[in-house]
Amino acid sequence: MLPSINKNANIFFKLLSRLLNKLFGKYLYVAIMTDFTYAKDNLLTKNSASFLEDPQFRRAYLAGKQTDKDRFLKGVDLEWRVHVLCWSAKYATNLNGDFVELGVRTGFFSKSIMEFVNFEELDKRFLLIDSFRGVIPELLNSDELRRESNNTDSVKVWESVYSQLEKEYQHTPKVEVIKGIVPEVLFGVKFDKIAFISLDLNSALPEKHALEFLWEYIVPGGIIVLDDYGYPGYEAQQAVHNAFAKSKGTHVLCLPTCQGIIVKPNLDCK
């Protein structure tokens, strides 16, 4: 009898924690920040978060966040995730290859990255690829369809986002805003060597096709940041990422931010 009670209790507390996180996750950190260095975006820690005091990072983060205009984030902060992206992009500046973002939204992540690495000084392109329609229902599995059923943003919202990005980068030839559905849109893009990819399409099948299509362009040591790798409810993407990495003789680094990282091995060094 006791095992059954314990099992039911575990289920109850798991459901309760999910409910509390959904209802109050944006605000709970305010009450406990005196004890924790970071308590946002499903991440709670007392470990050092010194990057939060870095003026260069702060400027980059705020520049990116301003692109959102509270259309998607609704007050949520993602500093540690952006820190991982900025660190990864900074590392990739030493590699020969362009930057690619798949899943752009308002350009929050890419704007922060460009500010952090002083992108205008680099001899690289930054390709910003998005449907600018949100997730594509025809490409979702049944679990993803249920998850995304309440996340439908209006056509007007996406039109304004796309217009905003086009306007911002119309005089920046090194930054290309590309509208289209992955994977079809990739066949019309002229890719060269790639050093860095930010992958955030919120669906497993497009991410699988994107990884398979772009791998040959990624230089040895090139880095891929998987935004949804460990996020609750996105297990199908994690399975795709793991299987893909294994097929390439490597594995995914799982981070507590929910992100995953794949670094392309240099097989010539073996």
UniProtKB/TrEMBL annotation:
A biological-process GO annotation: methylation
Coiled coil segments of this chain: none
What Gene3D superfamilies does UniProt report for this protein, alphabetically? Vaccinia Virus protein VP39 (3.40.50.150)
Gene Ontology molecular functions: methyltransferase activity
| InterPro entries with a match to the protein in the record | SAM-dependent_MTases_sf, TylF_MeTrfase
| Source domain of life | Bacteria
- Which keywords belong to this entry? Methyltransferase, Transferase
Please identify the protein, giving its name as recorded: Macrocin-O-methyltransferase (TylF)
